[in-house]
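User: quick one, sequence for these tokens?
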């Protein structure tokens, strides 16, 4: 695990975009699989990645974009994670349409939407029974309560060990969500957390400095056995940690 701290959201977001480009180019001629989150902090990273200074360096033709979680809303709804990424990133880049893999958040049933996404993941990654996909890179945020993706504290989704995607419930609207499961996230080759804001400083400290305090928190359960984890924090989110400044 590595921690980097930045003076503001803009610097953090540009560094995140830089790391995405770095990982994509390192995958050489192989497909590069990228799983994206919703939320206000990742939003700025997508704006940065859409900037020609970064987007021109990306191998978009072999990049496949997936989603970590979604709300059960229409893709044109302002709460849609897919819609947000489409507006800020996808509509500004030359990624082939067939390389964009959103949840079907507009289906009547979250169970059906989760099952459909699981089928898509199994087919794309050519998974056998009991196997999980290995994303090249997963971008995650973290809420003040320690949730990540749509994995909330005390959620039944945290107990899932077999499925790839499941319905989830949020106390905040939209209540009905979809999320990748912990086994999927923990199979990623690299995970980058993007966290900003003083209101998250105590939770950041719990997750990063006290394993006993972190264990009930979903973000503290992101512990890939083989992958790498990088935390990009602004100074406010890192205010209860020993200073370690990113470049």
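Assistant:
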């Amino acid at each position: 695990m590595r921690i980097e701290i930045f003076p503001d959201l803009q610097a953090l977001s540009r560094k995140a975009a830089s790391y995405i480009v770095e990982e994509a180019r390192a995958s050489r001629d192989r497909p590069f699989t990228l799983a994206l989150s919703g939320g206000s902090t990742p939003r700025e990273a997508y704006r940065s990645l859409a900037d020609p200074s970064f987007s021109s360096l990306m191998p978009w033709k072999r990049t496949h974009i997936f989603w970590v979680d979604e709300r059960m809303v229409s893709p044109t709804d302002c709460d849609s994670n897919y819609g947000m990424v489409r507006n800020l990133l996808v509509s500004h880049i030359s990624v082939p349409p067939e390389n964009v893999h959103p949840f079907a958040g507009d289906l009547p049933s979250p169970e059906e939407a989760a099952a459909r996404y699981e089928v898509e993941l199994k087919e794309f990654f050519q998974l056998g029974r009991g196997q999980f996909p290995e994303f090249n890179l997963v971008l995650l945020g973290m809420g003040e309560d320690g949730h990540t993706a749509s994995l909330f504290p005390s959620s039944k989704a945290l107990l899932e060990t077999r499925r790839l995607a499941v319905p989830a419930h949020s106390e905040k609207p939209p209540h009905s969500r979809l999320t990748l499961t912990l086994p999927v996230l923990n199979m990623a080759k690299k995970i980058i957390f993007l966290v900003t804001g003083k209101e998250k400083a105590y939770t950041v400290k719990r997750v990063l400095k006290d394993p006993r305090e972190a264990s009930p928190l979903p973000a503290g359960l992101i512990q890939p056995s083989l992958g790498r984890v990088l935390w990009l924090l602004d100074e406010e989110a890192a205010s209860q940690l020993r200073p370690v400044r990113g470049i």
